[in-house]
Design goal:
This protein is α/β, with parallel strands linked by helices and about 700 residues long. α10 runs antiparallel to α11. The chain is elongated. The protein starts with 18 loop residues before the first strand and ends with a strand. The relative contact order is 0.09. This is Glycogen operon protein. Keywords: Glycosidase, Hydrolase.
């Protein structure tokens, strides 16, 4: 892709057009390798991927780009490359190994684990009038889902479409997404991936998909059987058809992308592509060739090299432009921002290039702002223009509604409400004023960890089914089983768990920032206490669509909360307010105690004070002015609160309460100074008029 006049990608024009480019009845294959001494193109029979049909040498050109122009690479051609080079620390060349083109747009699989071939693809998809929805950030509600698990058991989706790209865009699913009020579907990895050999040996698989084989190809197994039989171009068309239909329904598609490592694992693991092309430059290493692993899976892509950084950027461009993807969530994103000394830098050229590339203009960029290396925790420290998973938000909210309550039953609440209030109001102690509250992607749960229901039903993880003696998965969960570990018939405990889930969901969807809901939490999905179910492609991880009444009630709460968020701009500021100043698109916040008086400084940190009233007044540019009052009561003892006297406010209209088993459709009104009975551990939202 040619660069714009004021933007230069890593490596510049010399690294343009890597992979296969069709032109003038022929094709040009370009492969980068600094240390190779030979690169050979190998083509194969369409039906027998072991039958070599032709071979041709590539020639080294400027900037260590090897190239060949040939009529062997016709659309649909199966091909691989062989790369030779010197021996020594950092190099792992083997001129007999068949390798994937890192830029291949299609893949074909043979019989064995490593029997993969690249496929030449022609893009002939008709997007017609389909356009990216470009949902404003303040109106974005993300729904994190596994593509297969979402529809595998959905009764209104035809069986042939279960667990597929086409199934996700079925009218029944679109109607479901609309009913929830979510605006963006964030898919766990859909780049082509493979299971680790160690999992296959244990009869398990890599269900989540964080083990990428190729950065340019959609995962073949998520396509319908019909598309798979037709070949890679049909798989590609089905993926694009999914995106097109979701866009036409006003829904964005965000991809969880894994650029921090590949499926080649550590030295001695599978050699499928980058390791055989130029191991010394594509992976982070010590001088002796030992890998520097900041990802916990054996290798780390070296984005300090132009080739490594450009591979990531070119992949993002392809998915954003050719596949029309709306945003990306970067797994272990701190690994991408490590420099040549392997230290994180928020000004890393790749992080800045991703933000500044015109091809990615308007694309949502979400970092998981940590990795497992030294100095890897970087929440709040990504560049302007990036958004971040806010683990500080997750931990504080879980503490407030769960572990603090657990502790209070044995002694007294360990902390007051100040830290919780900061998270509720947009985490201004984590993100700079310039970045504002929308830098924070708020979440209570994610694919990794307990589901919402398990969070309120288990104190500890139960991962025995993973075959690792329960050693895997997080030990610190900030969970609370409410008195019994796992399933129970006790109606008091069950009611407490349901209310805890409503409090957690209410906090998530009424906080300043961008909320992310995990698929299935809206109906209380359980994984039976497994907080690391990455290796299970079964009913443990597939969504159930058979729900009890309480589950339908919980879903109704989520729909009500997303609607209230949409209708009340005071809940979704894009900037932090400044004291004494008018700041457009901020929310002016006032804080009151349970007596309706302004909160005093000692009350913020007093463990005996876990009740507050949070008033927010919007300062919108395009919407009508709006005011809300949110009451939060964080102890199990019921209390009375006195509604505050707010300037120009004549009444408070009740909109939602977490104490209700089903959302109350009545709009009860109160006056300033009225005393309102408040159940233990509950929230209540009012519109201020």
């Amino acid at each position: 892709m040619p660069e714009s006049q004021d933007f230069t990608a890593p490596g510049g024009a010399a690294l343009d057009n890597l992979g296969v480019r069709l032109h003038d009845g022929v094709a040009t294959l370009r492969v980068w390798s600094q240390n190779a001494t030979s690169i050979e193109l190998v083509t194969f029979d369409e039906t027998d991927l072991d039958w070599v049909t032709d071979e041709m040498d590539l020639v080294r050109g400027p900037a260590d780009v090897w190239e060949v122009t040939t009529d062997l690479l016709l659309p649909g051609t199966r091909y691989a490359i062989r790369v030779g080079g010197p021996h020594g620390p950092g190099n792992t060349f083997n001129p007999e190994t068949l390798l994937l083109d890192p830029y291949a747009k299609g893949l074909a699989q043979g019989d064995g684990y490593e029997e993969w071939r690249s496929v030449v693809i022609v893009d002939g998809f008709d997007w017609a009038d389909s356009r990216k929805p470009r949902i404003p950030l303040d109106r974005t509600v993300i729904y994190e889902a596994h593509l297969k698990g979402m529809t595998k058991r959905q009764p209104d989706v035809p069986p042939a479409l279960h667990g597929t790209y086409a199934g996700l865009a079925h009218p029944a699913m679109i109607a479901y997404f609309h009913s929830l009020g979510v605006t963006a579907i964030e898919l766990l990895p859909v780049h082509a991936f493979v299971p680790e050999p160690r999992l296959l040996e244990r009869g398990l698989t890599n269900y989540w998909g964080y083990n990428t084989l190729n950065f340019f190809t959609p995962h073949n197994a998520y396509a319908t059987e019909e598309a798979r039989k037709q070949g890679p171009e049909a798989v590609l068309a089905e993926f694009k058809g999914m995106v097109k239909l979701l866009h036409e329904a006003g829904l964005e598609v965000i991809l969880d992308v894994v650029y921090n490592h590949t499926s080649e694992e550590g030295i001695g693991g599978p050699r499928s592509s980058l390791r055989g092309i130029d191991n010394a430059n594509y992976y982070r290493q010590h001088p002796d060739g030992a890998y520097i692993d900041t990802t916990g899976v054996g290798n780390t892509l070296n984005t300090a090299t132009d080739a490594g950084a450009r591979l990531v950027l070119d992949s993002l461009r392809y998915w954003a432009e050719e596949m029309q993807i709306d945003g990306f969530r970067f797994d272990l994103a701190a690994a991408l921002g490590r420099d040549s000394a392997h230290e994180y830098s928020r000004e890393h050229p790749l992080l800045m290039a991703i933000r500044d590339d015109p091809a990615l203009d308007g694309v949502k960029l979400i970092a998981e702002p940590w990795d497992v290396g030294l100095g890897g925790w970087q929440t709040g420290n990504f560049p302007d223009g990036w958004h971040e998973w806010n683990d500080r938000y997750r931990d504080r909210v879980r503490n407030f509604w769960l572990s603090d309550i657990d502790y209070a039953r044995r002694a007294s609440a360990p902390v007051g409400i100040g830290g919780f209030a900061t998270r509720l109001a947009g985490s201004s102690n984590t993100f700079s004023e310039d970045r504002g509250p929308l830098a924070s992607v708020n979440f209570i749960t994610a694919h990794d960890g307990f589901t919402l229901r398990d969070l309120v039903s288990y104190d500890v993880k139960h991962n025995e089914a993973n075959g690792e003696d329960n050693r895997d998965g997080a030990d610190m969960n900030r969970a609370f089983n409410h008195g019994v570990e796992g399933p129970t018939s006790d109606p008091v405990i069950k009611a407490a768990r349901r209310k805890a889930m409503r409090n957690l969901l209410g906090t998530l969807l009424l906080s300043a920032g961008i909320p992310m809901l995990t698929a299935g939490d809206e109906t209380g999905r359980t994984q039976r206490g497994n907080n690391n179910a990455y290796a299970h492609d079964s009913d443990l991880t597939w969504l159930s669509w058979e729900h009890e009444d309480w589950q339908n009630d919980l879903r109704a709460h989520v729909a009500a909360l997303t609607r209230l968020r949409r209708e009340n701009p005071a809940l979704r500021p894009s900037r932090y307010a400044r004291l004494g100043e008018h700041t457009p698109n901020a929310s002016v916040m006032d804080w009151y105690n349970q007596d309706g008086e302004t909160m005093e400084q000692p009350q913020w940190t007093d463990p005996g004070n876990r009740t507050l009233q949070y008033a927010a007044a919007s300062t919108p540019v395009e919407e009508q002015a709006n005011r809300i009052l949110l009451v939060v009561h964080g102890t199990e003892t019921p209390t009375d609160i006195t509604l505050p006297t707010i300037e120009d406010a004549t009444r408070f209209v009740s909109l939602w309460s977490s104490a209700d088993e089903h959302p109350d459709v009545k709009s009860e009104s109160f006056s300033p100074g009225d005393v309102v009975a408040t159940p233990g551990t509950s929230m209540r939202l009012f519109r201020v008029e």
